[in-house]
Amino acid sequence: MIVNNVLLKLNDRDKINQTKNILLRMKNEIKYLLTIQVELNTRSGEDDYDLLFITTFKTHEEMEKYLSHPKHIEAAEFISSVLDSQASVCYET
Q: What count of other Cβ atoms lies within 10 Å of the Cβ of residue 85?
């Protein structure tokens, strides 16, 4: 199983809940996405990220199909419009 963790820092904190909802919408729209979890940061500091989302996939190949899926691209376009910075860690279990 492939697990991908992504931290997002937004340039507009008023868009945090909208971003969460857009991410969660992908759950039933992309068959390669086994699970998605979105958590909001409860600590708010200048250097802190605003949200974390964790996705799981059967294989790296299915993750690549997810990344090129039109619904993921749509979500990524919105996120890029409100994104200040991001970090990610992908690993296999």
A: 10
Query: What DSSP line would sit under 20-83, residue for residue?
Result: HHHHHHGGGT-TT--EEEEEE-SS--TT--SEEEEEEESSHHHHHHHHTSHHHHHHHHHHHHHE
pLDDT over threshold 80, residue 44? no
For residue 11, what is the DSSP state? S
27-31, 46-50, 82-86, range with the lowest pLDDT: 46-50
Question: Exposed, middle or buried: residue 19 (CB in 10 Å: 0-12, 13-18, 19+)?
Answer: buried
What is the chain's mean pLDDT, rounded? 96
